Amino acid sequence: MLGVARRRLGCGGFSSSMLGQTLERIRLSNSILPRSFASAAKEITVRDALNSALDEEMSADSKVILMGEEVGEYQGAYKISKGLLDKYGPERVIDTPITEAGFTGIGVGAAYYGLRPVIEFMTFNFSLQAIDHIINSAAKSNYMSAGQISVPIVFRGPNGAAAGVGAQHSQCFASWYATCPGLKVLCPYSAEDARGLLKAAIRDPDPVVFLENELMYGESFPVSDEVLDSSFCLPIGKAKIEREGKDVTITAFSKMVGYALKAAEILSKEGISAEVINLRSIRPLDRATINSSVRKTNRLVTVEEGFPQHGVGAEICTSVVEESFEYLDAPVERIAGADVPMPYAANLERMAVPQVEDIVRAAKRTCYRSVPMAATA
Q1: Which one of 1, 239, 276, 326 is least enclosed by Cβ atoms within 10 Å?
Q2: Which residues lie below 8 Å from residue 287, measured CB to CB, with a gap of 6+?
Q3: What SUPFAM superfamilies does the database record attribute to this sequence (predicted)?
Q4: Which residue out of 56, 100, 315, 333 is catalytically annotated?
């Protein structure tokens, strides 16, 4: 900037003293203004966070391979695998036919023999074609072999509702796979989550179901230098308190964490201090962090996109009732998707998934700031 000032002032006929005074004013103004280009954290998208995690783990371990539809030549349906085929070649970045049962079975077999496959589903709804391999072949093998066979494999791809893709493309599989012993189930929200949890999943000796969200791929988040370090890794089974509070605990995962944070901001303007917990890991579930928070706030609201029956929220509620019932000052509130197949029409689709205002109303009910739902029925 000073160089530009010198060039511009130099052709204007200014005296050297005037030039010096002008440059000094520029220097002082720069010292007062925040220098975001130098001091602020770098922002990266969730897409780039996943791509960099894959790249670094493939570079660090030649046993890591990527398989799935369009992961190679097309660079990934959502461009998560951009650049990896050129860097690692077709033997490690493998384009497959449209046959989830086939390439998932091959991936599980490769894991039996010591490779570390990352299996990408174009959407996790398609994992139903391969669920026998995920559960019967991957999740159970270590137990059934008395520990002789480990299955270091990651099943990853977009999960939950996107936009206008109908019922057969909009399910949340968090509770589905979390019911199965032998699987670990991770749900990242931010770029930090995506990088740290995917690295942890690839390094883990057990099968991991890694549930991303299509609508979050393009979202940008600030990350620290620590997060960008190639050694960065997040622990599996540990939740993160995204926002501290004292009046009500809100648990959420994946895209719903952002909704919970927006709800907490609205609640704060009404004098309600909400603590927002980003679960990150659905199995194992960080019950200790959840119960510790509830024992502080005495209230709980769970948020998820999936169906309410047998959902993640139901498990959290049970955990709190079992371990912290005497601390509760209000009934637990569950916010979930509607108990119907996802509508295609945009207006009905919005009604079928949780919204920020739903979380706000539930939190206010637990704090006795509004009429309970049962009283209006």
Answers
A1: 326
A2: 319, 323
A3: Thiamin diphosphate-binding fold (THDP-binding) (SSF52518), TK C-terminal domain-like (SSF52922)
A4: 100
Q: What are phi and psi of 196, to 5 degrees?
A: -70, -40
| Separation of alpha carbons 111 and 197, rounded Å | 19
100 classed as catalytic? yes
- Are the C-beta atoms of 203 and 60 separated by less than 8 Å? no
Which residue among the candidates 56, 69, 120, 169 is catalytic per the annotation? 169
Whether 310 is catalytic? no
Global confidence as pTM: 0.86
Over the stretch 160-211, which tens digit does the pLDDT of each residue have?
Answer: 988 889 899 999 999 999 999 999 999 999 999 999 999 999 999 999 999 9
CATH topology of domain 240-366: Rossmann fold (3.40.50)
Distance CA 187, CA 200 (A): 12
How confident is the model at residue 372, as a pLDDT? 57
Per domain, the residue ranges of the chain are 2-228, 240-366
Q: For residue 252, which phi and psi values (nearest 5 degrees)?
A: -160, 165
pLDDT one-digit tens code per residue, 317-362: 999 999 999 999 999 999 999 999 999 999 999 999 999 999 999 9
